[in-house]
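Weekly sync, protein design subgroup
Attendees: M.S., D.O., the rotation student, P.L. (late)

Item 1: inverse folding check
M.S. brought a backbone from last month's batch and wanted to see whether the design step gives back something sensible before we order anything. D.O. pointed out we never logged the input encoding, so this time it goes straight into the notes. Structure tokens as presented (67 positions):
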């Protein structure tokens, strides 16, 4: 198991993990603050949490109602 972990290119993967976590946190904070969305909020929470990097991006593009 440790040998497999040593083969992973962490210099490439670590920044993607950080970007994913930052986008997820920002999207969840924005979802909490905004009053109306395109669709139910609980659905957007699930999409943000379980759709990895694509979920928060979809929320910012599709989920927010433009005022």
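Designed sequence read out in the meeting:
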């Amino acid at each position: 198991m440790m040998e497999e972990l040593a083969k992973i290119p962490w210099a490439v993967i670590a920044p993607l993990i950080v970007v994913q976590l930052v986008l997820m946190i920002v999207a969840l904070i924005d979802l909490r603050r905004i009053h109306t969305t395109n669709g139910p909020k609980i659905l957007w929470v699930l999409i943000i949490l379980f759709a990895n990097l694509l979920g928060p991006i979809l929320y910012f593009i599709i989920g927010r109602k433009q005022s």
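Discussion: Residues 2-63 form one domain. The chain has four helices and no strands.
Action: P.L. to compare against the previous round before Friday.
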